[in-house]
Known about the structure:
Layout: H1 4-11, H2 16-27, H3 32-45, H4 56-59, H5 62-69, H6 74-97, E1 114-117, E2 121-126, H7 131-134, H8 149-155, H9 159-170, H10 174-185, H11 189-202
Antiparallel strand pairs: 1-2
Helix pairs in contact: 1-2, 9-10, 10-11
Amino acid sequence: MKSKIAEDLEILGLNSVVSESIADDILNKDARSLLHEMLISGLWKLVIDETKPELLAKIGGATVRRLLDSGHDVEDLVDVVRETQVDMLYNMAQLIDWPTEHVSISEQLETEINVRFTKMGGASLPIYGLHGDVMTRDPSGRSGEPRSLDVRRLQKFSDDKRDQLLRLVQAGKLSEAALLWKKQWGGNLKDCLKSVQSLKGFLK
C-alpha cells in the first residue's frame, strides 16, 4: 500500500517509483534522496521555459527590454538566456559537489556538505552528488543541450499537429512528416525531410 509520504511526493510531480524510494529513505531518517530531488527539481524551475517566450519580457531586466524594443528575435534571446542559465546550473551543481575543487588548499581543510532532518533526528550524512544527475533532468529532454532551429519550430506547432508529426516520425513515416512540416513552414521538400529527420534525435 502506498504511503502517505509517497502520495505527498507524487503531488510534487515525482513518479511513483521515485516517490516510494524517497519515502523509504525518509522512514529510515535518511534525508539525502529528498534533498537531492528538491535541489535538482528546484534548480530546473529557475530556468526559463523556452516554450513560453512571452515570459522573457516579464522576467528580463532593462537590457533585455532594450533588446526586445530594438527588434531582436525574442526566441534567440530566450535561447541565449536559457543556455546561460543551464551552464550556471551545472557549474553550481559541481561547486556544491566539490566546493574546494579549484582552490589550492590543504587536504585537511577539504569539506563536504551533510544533511539531516532537523526535527526527525537521524544521522547527518554526505549529500548525493548533483552534477552527474542534473542534466538528465532537463525538462526539454535534451540533457542541457541547446535547442536547434528545428526543435524551436516543432514547439510552434499546435499540440495536435505536433503530436501527429511526432507519431509519424516515430513510426518512420518521414515523407508524410515532411509534407506536414512543409505545410506549416514552407520550403522545399528536401529541406523539410532533413528537418523531420533531425527530430529523431530529439525523441530519444
